[in-house]
Design goal:
The chain has a single domain, classed as Nitrilase/N-carbamoyl-D-aminoacid amidohydrolase (4-Layer Sandwich). The chain is built from 6 helices and 15 strands.
Length: 292
């Protein structure tokens, strides 16, 4: 059973080189969100460390953790203490040479309700994720929580309408996108505003096309590496099934809380019946890399 309304918290933070500081900051954010009535709280992608995928560095694999490692265990204790559900990102190791960018849905009893492994893995300058992460092998899903049906997704997944559609078709009422995205300094002046706008637009479009809430949690701050630097642009937000922005952060660390009326899902889908009118008989080419 899900709630009629649910308050969702987002923890937007800057990351330091010290894992314990990042974890403490994330926990402080969860506590603040819970104190403001949030029953679901989402942390940003790979929040426990700087964004290490700017460069290819084999030593980074030593920081990966199993699903029941110290980061997940610590967050589980906080979730149980505060009686909230937390979506927490980890750098998962399944064994030597096999690693994933993984999102755990940890329930208010501290138990793991769902495990999602990032399906789409990018490879761009200073986003060297294919070096670190194997593609997810658990598929798209909806995870039952005491508050609503959660659709876990991660960062690069947010650009793919197929991912949003399939997650919604599994029953998700809110799509969650923990994220690490920002500007390269040499591109910001010319492309920065357009990149940010595109990032917000595609996710708001997923909300509209599927009649669900969308929750996007990005990091902030400038992180430097041997390859250069990335200025993470923040602007975490929640939007309604009609695409309306309910809350939005700026470019500083911030905790957001949005009240989401789940009845809007049915109301919106009755007005815009996109699932009714889908031509599933004509979509076979979507399973091909290219139609021609």
């Amino acid at each position: 059973m899900t709630d009629a309304t649910v308050r969702i918290g987002l923890v937007q933070q800057a990351c330091t080189e010290h894992k314990h500081e990042n974890l403490e900051n994330a926990i402080a954010g969860v506590r603040e969100a819970a104190s403001r009535g949030a029953r679901l709280v989402c942390l940003q992608e790979l929040f426990a460390t700087p964004y290490f995928a700017q460069v290819q560095e084999p030593a980074v694999f030593d920081s990966a953790e199993p699903l029941d490692g110290p980061t997940a265990t610590t967050i589980a204790k906080v979730a149980r203490e505060l009686n909230v559900t937390v979506l927490t990102s980890i750098f998962e190791t399944r064994g030597a040479g096999l690693y994933h960018n993984t999102l755990l849905v940890i329930g208010p009893k501290g138990d793991t309700l769902g495990v999602y492994r990032k399906m789409h893995i990018p490879q761009d300058p200073q986003f060297e994720e294919k070096f670190y992460f194997a593609p997810g092998d658990l598929g798209f899903m909806s995870v039952s929580t005491p508050h609503c049906q959660v659709g876990p997704l991660v960062c690069w997944d947010q650009w793919y309408p197929e991912a949003a559609r399939l997650t919604a078709m599994h029953g998700a009422q809110a799509l969650f996108y923990p994220t690490a995205i920002g500007w390269l300094p040499e591109e910001k002046a010319e492309h920065g505003a357009d990149q940010l706008s595109a990032w917000q637009t595609i996710q708001r479009a997923h909300a509209i096309a599927n009649g669900v809430f969308t929750v996007s949690v990005n990091r902030v701050g400038t992180e430097r590496s041997a390859a250069g630097s990335i200025e993470f642009w923040g602007h975490s937000f929640v939007c309604s099934p009609s695409g309306k922005l309910l809350v939005e952060a700026g470019t500083d660390p911030e905790v957001l809380v949005a009240e989401c009326d789940l009845s809007q899902i049915a109301e919106t889908r009755r007005i815009w019946p996109f699932f009714r009118d889908r031509r599933i008989d004509a979509y076979g080419d979507l399973t091909k890399r290219w139609a021609r």
